[in-house]
Amino acid sequence: MTLPLPLSAHQIALGAQMLAIGEAARAACAGIARSPASSRTAALQAMARHIRTHAGRILTANAADMEAARAKSLTGSMLDRLELSPQRIEAMARGVEEIAAVADPVGSVLATWIRPNGLEISRVSGPIGVIGIIYESRPNVTADAGALCVRAGNAVILRGGSESLNSSRVIAECLRAGLHEAGLPEDAVQLVQTPDRAAVGYLLSGLEGRVDVLVPRGGKSLVARVQAEARVPVIGHLEGLCHTYIHQGADPDRAEAIIVNAKMRRTGVCGSTETMLIDAAIAPALLPRLAQALERAGCELRGDARACALHPMIPATPSDWTTEYLAPILAVAVVDDLDAAMSHIARYGSQHTDSIVTEDALAARRFLAEVDSAVVMHNTSTQFSDGAEFGMGAEIGIATGRLHARGPVGAEQLTIFKYVVRGQGQIRP
Question: What is the mean pLDDT of residues 125-142?
Fold first, then answer.
């Protein structure tokens, strides 16, 4: 029998620190859940003002993060996600304001009905409670996630990647200042301040019942670890293996504009297309044009045998169909028809976002009905798979699971519901 090793003083201190964060979140949870929508709106508006006021501090902190990240030789896509600019900080502030403008999801009557015995039953939305959010290098997630949780009346514990810790600290200070200004508990938003990876393990444990749900946002390894080790429910997504399918009924000009945008607008986002499928009937005429447009934009192409025969490109390997590049690289496959395209997506996709480009209404209808992804699209770029673009103000991520939330996770998806039953003295026989 192997006995467990005794905890070090550092582990004991870290465990106590994480439990204290959980206890503070649980205490703040009651206050934020009972707060009126107007107070949470005021807090969000104040958060946006503080982000703008402290933009210089955020940029200074981000410069330190970027310097350390370059010293660690992080990939270009990671650096792009980490880097902030005055424009990105302004977008962050605007995002918080857009969340403030979203209809308050707390207390909404989702359904109501009256039973034959006269009981009136309503299903009413309310906060989940304490949400733990684990994410990687994007410091803007600190603002988006914190603001969304507040909008939905939740307390949140944020654990960002160590690469963005300096940036996230200043942003979290802005969020807490906004809560204070509105008279709400500051501990409704807390950032785990240590870069120690062991802190994630404590958060995954649920902090002895103080965390109600976890939301991972990051790469495949992070999400897999959270889903495997979490002791509380998880709202998560796997990687964004997004497809754009150029159907034989596609308009060539529209197809070119869409695929270049879907791949190259920002290659490091999860809604970026990673595989282009194109019908064999139109591939000889259209594939070289699309390939040249992508190459002019700086994209590397990796094709199957039929694609390589129509335009020079790197031969694809089996792993190319299952790789989320997050880089200017696109896998290309020629398919026989709509059924073959949907079969490819079902086999290799991650059920994130998939789009069909066609003027054939029947083909589009079949694709939208039969492709089993969180987001399905017709004649548009997969890069629109984003909570802000859906009118949610922002999102924590694109959930690809089947329980509780699917697609962009905004404020409404961070609520749960309860049943309210009103009677006039009825008793059950």
Answer: 93
Helix (H) or strand (E) holding 53: helix 37-53
Which residues 6+ apart lie within 8 Å of 87 measured at CB? none
How many residues in total does the chain contain? Answer: 429
- CA distance linking residue 223 with residue 146, whole number of Å: 19
Which residue range(s) make up the domain with 365?
A: 242-389
Same domain, yes or no, for 76 and 196?
A: yes
pTM of the model: 0.84
Does 200 share its domain with 333? Answer: no
CA distance linking residue 193 with residue 92, whole number of Å: 21
Q: How far is CA 306 from the centre of its chain?
A: 35
Q: What is the dihedral of CA 156, 373, 363, 300, to 10 degrees?
A: 90
Whether 192 and 288 share a structural domain: no
Residue 91: C-alpha distances to residues 110, 143, 152, 163 (Å): 32, 11, 21, 21
Nearest to 178 by CA among 360, 90, 49: 49
Model confidence pLDDT, tens digit, residues 166-223:
999 999 999 999 999 999 999 999 999 999 989 999 999 999 999 999 999 877 788 8
